[in-house]
Each structure stands twice: as C-alpha cells, then as structure tokens.
Automatic annotation (TrEMBL):
Protein name: Exopolyphosphatase
Species the sequence originates in: Catellatospora citrea
Leader sequence residues: none
Ppx/GppA phosphatase N-terminal domain boundaries: 25-289
InterPro entries xref list: ATPase_NBD, GppA/Ppx_hydrolase, Ppx_GppA_N
A molecular function GO annotation: pyrophosphatase activity
Xref: Gene3D superfamilies: 3.30.420.40, Exopolyphosphatase. Domain 2
UniProt cross-references to Pfam families, sorted A to Z: Ppx-GppA
Amino acid sequence: MGDAVAAIDCGTNSIRLLITENGRDVERLMRIVRLGAGVDRTGRLDPAAIERTRAALAEYRTLIESHGVTRIRMVATSATRDAANAADFHDMVRATLGRPAEVITGTEEAALSFGGAVTGLDGTGPYLVVDIGGGSTEFVRGHRAVDSSISMDIGCVRMTERHLPTDPPTAAQLDAATRDIDAAVSAALAHVGTGPATLVGVAGTVTTLAGIALGLDHYDPARIHHSVLPAATVERLAAQLSAMDHDARAAIPVMHPGRVDVIIAGGLILREIMRQTGFSEIVVSEHDILDGIAASIRH
C-alpha cells in the first residue's frame, strides 16, 4: 500500500482510526473509551479509562499492520492536555502502538478539524467550523486556510460531568449548563468573529443530531454527510433529548451507546452556537480532524 496512511484521533470521549489509500477510505472506526472521564473533577486520567484506550489501540495496531501501513500519525487532544498523570497514557501508547502520540494544542486541533471539514465543500468560504468534542469545542473561521480559531473548554463529556448529574437533568441543571456554555460561546465568537459564513459542524454530537433529524433507522454516514440541520430543528432536538431518560435516548436508532449519556450536553452546546451566531442552518460534515490528520501525513 504505497500511498496508505493511518490517522488516529484520541479525544476525550472516543478514539478513532482512519486508514486511507489514494484518497479512498480503507478503514474508518470509532471506539468510545471515555479517556477523559473524571478529568474535569480530578485532574487525572482514570487507570480504567487508559486500559479501555489501550484495548482499542491494540485493535487498531492489528488493523494497521494487516494493511501494511507504515505512515502513521496519532494525535491526542483535550483530555491529555489537562491530566496530571498524562505520562501514564503516553507510556501506554508507546508500548501498544510502538510510537508516541502527539499532544496538540487547541490551535493545531482547530486547524486539523478545519482542513478535514471543508474538504469537498463547494466554494472557497468563508466557513465557520465548529467541532464539538468531549472535552472542548473548537471554533475555526477561514476560507481554504484558517484565519482565526479558538478552543474552549466546553465539550459534551465535560459539561455532562460538571452540570448534569441526574437523568434526565433538572431544569436548574440545564440552566446552569446553558449559562456556562453561553459564556464560552460568546467569548469564542468575539475572538473568531460573527460575519457572514457557511456554518459547518463536525464530530459525533452534530452527526448524531443530523441522523435523528433525517429519521434514519441506522447510522448512515453517506446520508448524514453534507446534510443540513435547520436551527429550528436543533432547538427542537435539544429540548426533546433533554426531557428523555437514558433508556429513551438509547432506543434512538442512530444513537451510539457511548453517546447516550452525553448527547444532551452536546445538543445544548450546538443550540447555543446556533442561537448566538444567528445562522439559520448548519452543514453537517462526516469529515473532521481525522481527515485533517490523514491529509497532514500525505502532504
């Protein structure tokens, strides 16, 4: 596989693998490992979370080797930037993958997300890309390259742990989460600007909401990619999900089991972004930081 590359994105909630050859996806996998579980409260990575990540990474290494790929880049984001015992994670990665993970800054994360998200979109922008992760959300404005970006410590795992302890959450808990998110979104938009743009959303919260809005009976990336979510639909889904209990959310056909507990917070984050930007819709992209990582290896 002369042109094959393997990209690994290890975030707060999930670890994902993309193997491409000649621009074609060979493997695209996700495992929910919750590496960042508890980090907002304890400042440390849980040993059980590191072990879940190790098991997924061992699976990925087997796949990478089976395809004969030698050009590999693994990027670690929010959780490993915050943790006091990050060395334990990095020792595990070197032992399991045979090479280190790169801990990238929020600025680097934003640039990789933007590069992946705008691939395949018509025109030259401007685009405002929002990447709602587990620990952080990136806001990136640009045309074909990044003009401005910022990473804020609001993510679906972090907000769930900080504000939504009951299931379903109470009105007071939802209000507290919304105030926290509202302040962060306001600060982010003051930094990147709020001028005319195409709003593009990436990562699991946005793609899951799109799947629900489309009424899919199973998760179908081809249907979700470049679909459009109206702001009114985001408002409706955020309200509906916030009122559902765990079992009701788990019964939604497109809902990944690892997203059931954090989709409410994710919906609140997207709702506040839509409210504050004033955009009437958001374009949903299945291409994100993982595609940006793969492209960075090829270039």
